[in-house]
């Protein structure tokens, strides 16, 4: 079991990073809530991790905040929620936002997450409500700065690729990125952030209109 990594970030391509630990490069899947806080390539990072073994792969998931790992592990215990969907949920909202979502029984915000149907959302509300009664997270205090992507990179394509990796359909990802892209955006991370926020806003408007 790999519970923590401390090393130097070699590459950052959301939602995956590679961390060099004593010459060994670990591929780590991270939610956007973690990715946006990572230090730049070449700088050191410390992550708490969850190691998942499947028949066809061994995957490592990383988090800056212990609360996110606790929530991630609780989510994957819910029927119908695997690591990929849990990662998507934590990309669309941080741990505190998810807790508020469950407390307020915000079904529409959950359904707005790619891969979450109404039945899964209802199951999340029911099962996570009990788990969150005693859910207390302790932040490890890690933080970092965002870095700009290498020159020449197509930031829209990078953003679309990240959204597809999180579960959005290619056409849907392209539409979301196109809707929020303007001249003020200089990196893919900002595009991803705006796209994810736009899905939350649309869900909130729909909820108020009902």
What does this structure look like?
This protein is an alpha+beta fold and 210 residues long. The chain folds into 3 domains: 4-63, Nucleic acid-binding proteins (OB fold (Dihydrolipoamide Acetyltransferase, E2P)), CATH 2.40.50; 66-134, DNA polymerase, domain 1, CATH 1.10.150; 155-209, Helicase, Ruva Protein, domain 3 (Orthogonal Bundle), CATH 1.10.8. Helix content is 46%, strand content 18%. It has 9 helices and 5 strands, in the order βββαββαααααααα. A 5-stranded antiparallel β-sheet has the order 3-2-1-4-5, covered by helices on one side. Helix 7 packs across helix 8 (170-180). Residues 136-152 have low confidence and may be disordered.
Which series of helices and strands comes N to C? EEEHEEHHHHHHHH
Major sheet description: 5 strands, antiparallel
Q: What's the architecture of the largest domain in CATH terms?
A: Orthogonal Bundle
The largest beta-sheet arranges its strands as: 3-2-1-4-5
CATH H level, superfamily name of the largest domain? 5' to 3' exonuclease, C-terminal subdomain
């Amino acid at each position: 079991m790999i519970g923590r990594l401390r090393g130097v970030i070699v590459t950052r391509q959301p939602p995956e990073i590679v961390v060099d630990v004593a010459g060994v490069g670990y591929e780590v899947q991270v939610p956007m809530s973690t990715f946006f806080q990572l230090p730049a390539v070449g700088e050191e990072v410390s992550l708490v991790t969850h190691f998942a073994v499947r028949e066809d792969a061994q995957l490592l998931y990383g988090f800056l905040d212990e609360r996110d790992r606790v929530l991630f592990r609780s989510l994957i215990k819910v029927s119908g929620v695997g690591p990929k969907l849990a990662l998507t949920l934590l990309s669309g909202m941080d741990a505190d936002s998810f807790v508020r979502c469950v407390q307020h029984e915000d079904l529409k915000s959950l359904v707005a997450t790619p891969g979450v149907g109404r039945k899964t959302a209802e199951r999340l509300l029911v099962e996570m409500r009990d788990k969150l009664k005693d859910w207390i997270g302790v932040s490890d205090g890690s933080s970092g700065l965002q870095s700009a992507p290498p020159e020449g990179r197509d930031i829209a394509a990078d953003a679309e690729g990240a959204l597809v990796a999180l579960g959005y359909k290619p056409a849907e990802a392209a539409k979301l990125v196109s809707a929020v892209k303007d001249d003020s955006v200089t990196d893919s991370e900002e595009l991803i952030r705006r796209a994810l926020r736009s899905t939350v806003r649309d869900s909130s408007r729909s909820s108020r209109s009902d």
